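[Automated response] Your request has been received and processed.

Submitted sequence:
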Amino acid sequence: MNKKKVFNLAKGFRGRAKNCIRIARERVEKALQDRRNKKRDMRSLWIQRINAGTRLHSVNYGNFMHGLMKENIQLNRKVLSELSMHEPLSFKALVDISRNAFPGNKNVVHPPRKVSIPVSV
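Generated structure:
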């Protein structure tokens, strides 16, 4: 990155991090790296929420997303995770559409079993 771009990205930083190129470059690189990690973590969280919602309806995440893709339903993962948490009936309608679009969704995915732990006295 050239000096001008680094200083534009370093606006608002404290101390010499906003006006000394060597320090500003380090702080900007660190800030951009943290943003990438944050985006990666949020995407992972959305996928986990969608997966939990789909498994309630006996479909796994991959088959659900493939069915939506086949039906050309273009909702991103953020919106799908919000639907699975706050609008369960709307999400169930999407699961049904996905299940009809992709025959792999008709296979039963067993919900996790309760494991009984023996209690020794």
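Summary generated for your ticket: The chain has five helices and no strands. The helical segments are 3-9, 21-55, 61-70, 77-86, 88-101.
If you did not submit this request, please reply to this message.
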